[in-house]
Write a structure and sequence with these properties.
Radius of gyration: 13 Å
Helix content: under 10%
Distance between the termini: 40 Å
Strand content: over 45%
Number of helices: 0
């Protein structure tokens, strides 16, 4: 059974940075593309970033381009989301994902 455990969230001021980590287990991590989603209060869950496994191509939603970076370390079964220049609108629960499986989510709260 695939599992994910996210860490690195918390409270940060606007303009600050956080690095989310997600440790995967129960499957061959390096074989799958990985994604970060987020869900803000009262809004639908949205795809934030994706990293393809074969091509290393990335996708970012327009609102985070130039500020967020997705990466992975297959040797550690871990994926990351580096978030810089955080804004109030980035406040959400962030989820790591591969097709069919989700982490439990971790809160990022951007507040002054």
């Amino acid at each position: 059974q695939a599992q994910f455990v996210e860490s690195g969230g918390g409270l940060v001021q606007p303009g600050g940075s956080l690095r989310l980590s997600c440790v995967a287990s129960g499957f061959t991590f390096g074989r799958f593309s990985v994604r970060w989603f987020r869900q803000a209060p009262g809004k639908e869950r949205e795809l934030v970033a994706r990293l393809e496994t074969l091509t290393n191509n990335t996708f970012y939603v327009d609102s985070v381009k130039g500020r967020f970076t997705i990466s992975r370390d297959n040797a550690k079964n871990t994926m990351y989301l580096q978030m810089d220049n955080l804004k109030f609108d980035d406040t959400a629960v962030y989820y790591c994902n591969r097709p069919g499986y989700w982490g439990k989510g971790i809160l990022v709260n951007v507040s002054s």
